[in-house]
Amino acid sequence: MLVDSHCHLDYFTEAEIEAIVARAREAGVGRMVTIGTRVGQAEKVKALTERFPDVWGTVGVHPHNAGEPEGMPTTAEIVALADHPRVIGIGECGLDYFYDKAPREAQQEGFRRHIRAARETGLPVCIHARQADDDILAILREETAAGGAFPFLLHCFSSGAGLARGALAMGGYLSFSGILTFPKSPEIRAIAAEAPADRILVETDSPYLAPVPLRGKRCEPGYVAHTAKVLAETRGLGIAEAEALTTANFFRLFPKAA
Fold this sequence. Notes:
Blueprint: E1 2-7, H1 14-26, E2 29-34, H2 42-51, E3 55-59, H3 75-81, E4 87-96, H4 104-121, E5 125-130, H5 133-147, E6 152-154, H6 161-169, E7 173-176, H7 186-194, E8 200-202, H8 224-235, H9 239-253
Parallel strand pairs: 1-2, 2-3, 3-4, 4-5, 5-6, 6-7, 7-8
Helix pairs in contact: 3-4, 4-5, 5-6, 8-9
């Protein structure tokens, strides 16, 4: 079985979702996690998890949306949003200094609130990190020192080796998307090859980042098989081994989905 640990099913039209989930099942995907990006979107995420037995969800506010009029929820409000039997994680949250769509101070405060909600609920926090490695690592360390360890996943990993090493040293996990398959991603493949075997997952981040050989197409959860194949090659594993490994890691990090 394969798991797409990070996708955005609600970004597809209502008419498309049934077929997309069916194609994922045909590709051997046994679990899909549809990800929260806004407070107002949380009910749609929950509805999708109730509709499909193999779909689970997270709730949170993407750093792009941290400065929107809807506002960043408090830690208590994030905890309340997560109070649902099929919500298995907090986020996605984090920092994005590439697009800088929200003030960095708002992104940082939102990130800390999500971490505190993750600690309070025991659910893992799903982290978006883009061109903000130093601040991501600093906040992870500060929050760990202040309140203790918490489970977390750096999703769609495309950062540097320093952030990977620092996160792994704190018990974090790394998830690899279609970026792993791109010809210009040797550094990401090197990180995937060297990471501890019990700390790696795969995802699509669909509808974005379709893997090779499907570049240019709109991505969907079934395409995670192509990323798993490259991960297997990168680590010198058979495909079945890579699938079993990443699925076991998923259930360890997200036990609520078992």
